[in-house]
Amino acid sequence: MDTKIFYFSGTGNSLAVARDLASNIKGKVELVNIAKEIKKDKIEIKEGCIGIIYPVYFEGTPLIVSRFIDKIQANNGSYFFGIATYGGMAAGAIRHLSNKFKSRGLKLSSGFVIQMPGNYTPMYDVKSNDFQEKVFAKEKEKIAKIANIVNKREEHHLEKGSFVTNLIFTKIGHNIKSPKFPNQDKHFSSDEKCSSCGTCIKICPVNNIKLENGKPEWQHNCEQCFACFHWCPEKAIQCGSKTAKRGRYHHPEIELKDMLIKK
Q1: Which residue among 176, 200, 225 closes a domain?
Q2: Same structural domain for residues 199 and 115?
Q3: How far apart are CA 255 and CA 69, in angstroms?
Q4: pTM for the full model?
Q5: 30 close to 5: Cβ distance less than 8 angstroms
Q6: Last residue of some domain: 129, 161, 176?
Q7: DSSP for residue 23
Q8: Residues 6+ apart with CB under 8 A from 99
């Protein structure tokens, strides 16, 4: 039975997880970038095993992933699984994904959460290399366990936080914050280090950035993936007043060319 894994990734964490999982899955496996698929009016899925891998945004599902699921045309007899990567807390992100599937008459058979280095730099600095290495080691251990479950097409409980964290951070917090995501790019800016290279334009999954007079301008259709911020080669993109003194992050096994989407 063929497997297709759809992923969404801003700094490479979820792509790295998708690759690691694919290397442990039996049979033919295809990786597909959700940012590329989302351009279609409808997304027909014929494979018997389908995975969705995505980062947790404010303890819930990214808007682009929700829109992707709304476009899915699939057989309910297929085996669906989800993996949410998180930096701080996953809370009810997998349950949130499951509810999206239910709204389409589909079932999420298993769901997992995997900690990866956080990248929400407006709130905290980049994690140390030592911390990252420990997290990556645990990720690979968990991927092996997830692969065993997926290979057997087993039903598995949906991993989630406590009732309180799910209620406060996902059901209430995410639902309040997520509609505001598109306009949160108002906090982005470029400083004097900007070389007008256009990397931010090429890396944006939703074509939300244009160059105006040689400088990036955000068009208020933001996904809050922070790809433009972390992949800028000059570290010229800032988000608020604190990020100029903080580091930048992308998964060490992922290169810029792996992230680019043909426009």
Answers
A1: 176
A2: no
A3: 27
A4: 0.94
A5: yes
A6: 176
A7: T
A8: none
Token couple for 124: 């905290």
Does 188 lie in the same domain as 160? no
The DSSP line for 183-235 is GGGGGEEE-TT-----HHHHH-TT--EEEETTEEEE-S------HHHHH-TT-
Are 9 and 65 members of one domain? yes
Number of domains in the chain: 2
SS3 98: helix
What are 7's strand-pairing partners? 33, 53
What's the DSSP call for residue 84? E
**Virtual CA dihedral for 82, 86, 89, 91, nearest 10 degrees?**
-10
For every one of its 263 residues, what pLDDT tens digit does the chain have, with 9 covering 90 and above?
Answer: 689 999 999 999 999 999 999 999 999 999 999 999 998 999 988 889 999 999 999 889 999 999 999 999 887 788 999 999 999 888 899 999 999 999 999 999 999 999 999 999 999 999 999 999 999 999 999 999 999 999 999 999 999 888 878 778 788 888 888 889 999 999 999 999 999 999 999 999 999 999 999 999 999 999 999 999 999 999 999 999 999 999 999 999 999 999 987 64
The CATH number of whichever domain residue 233 belongs to comes to 3.30.70.20
Q: Are residues 171 and 186 in the same domain?
A: no
Residue 44 backbone dihedrals phi, psi, to 5 degrees: -85, 130
